[in-house]
Design brief:
The structure is a single chain. By secondary structure, this protein is α+β, with helices and mostly antiparallel strands. Strands 1, 2, 3, 4, 5 and 6 form a 6-stranded antiparallel β-sheet that branches. The protein is flat and about 60 Å long.
């Protein structure tokens, strides 16, 4: 059991990147979330943008890369993994990785909505041609 897990809801900043290294397939994604950050001096609402980078392995990564597009909302469950290494200057470095364990689709982004609308248009045209 991993002692640190998180659930994140955000929109894809760009299309997922699928890669293979050492026989292992993985997808890298970046989720972006906007949060209310008070008001500016003129009384307008401000937003704070937060970006988190995730990785999904094997079939999970392939499913995300195949079906998700920039702008799509994803709800991900991820394990937090600590990383340590020694850099080229001999300094010990620390970082964290967020490894996706599961995900669900939220609202589709613009690209997905346009793709779905185009499909609906094709289906309607096919139906009209069949009727004629």
């Amino acid at each position: 059991m991993n002692s640190f897990t998180l659930t994140a809801v955000g929109n894809l900043a760009k299309d997922p990147e699928l890669a293979v290294k050492g026989g292992t397939t993985h997808a890298h994604i970046c989720l972006v979330g906007n949060d209310y950050a008070g008001k500016d001096s003129e009384g307008n609402a401000r937003e704070a943008v937060t970006s988190l980078y995730f990785v999904a392995f094997d079939g999970l990564g392939e499913a995300i890369a195949k079906n998700a597009r920039k702008g799509d909302q994803l709800i991900v469950q991820a394990q937090v993994r600590a990383n340590t290494w020694v850099d080229k200057d001999g300094e010990k470095r620390y970082d964290h990785s967020f490894v996706i364990q599961g995900f669900r689709f939220g609202a589709p982004g613009r690209a997905k909505r346009e793709e779905l609308a185009a499909r609906r248009g094709e289906n309607e045209m096919d139906a009209l041609e069949t009727e004629i």
